[in-house]
Amino acid sequence: MPWEWELSPTAEQVLAQLDLGLKGAFNQRMGELMRDPTPSNPLVVSMSRTGYPTDTLGYHAYPFWITFRLVGDIVQVGTLVHNPRDF
Fold first, then answer.
1. Which one of 23, 47, 53, 77 has the fewest beta carbons within 10 angstroms of its own beta carbon?
2. How far apart are CA 87 and CA 81, in angstroms?
3. Where in the chain are the domains?
4. Tens-place pLDDT, residues 14-49
5. CATH number of the 4-82 domain
């Protein structure tokens, strides 16, 4: 089943501003992350940084930290945090 996205207006604006290659790589790697959530993957499980449960993913596209939550087959975009190094 293909991914479905629920984007908040702010998240949608930020993603639209990302380099298209980076955005493409993100979309391509989402399914891979679900099978292999390793630190070498651009998307990492980041409970310590986001405070969300372990099924939530963080994607660092400086200066934003975009969090995602997998709910069934839907990936929901969560909070955008400016300067994630403050965590």
1. 53
2. 10
3. 4-82
4. 555 554 445 555 555 555 555 555 444 444 333 333
5. 3.30.2310
Instruction: Answer for the pair 56, 47: CB distance below 8 angstroms, yes or no.
Output: yes
CA distances from 63 to 1, 59, 80 (A): 32, 11, 10
Tell which residue, 53, 62, 75, 23, has the closest CA to residue 45.
53
Gyration radius from the chain CA atoms? 12
Closest CA to 61 of 44, 75, 74, 76: 44
Q: Which pTM value belongs to this model?
A: 0.22
φ and ψ of 39, to 5 deg: -60, -25
Cα within 13 Å of Cα(63), Cβ side: 3
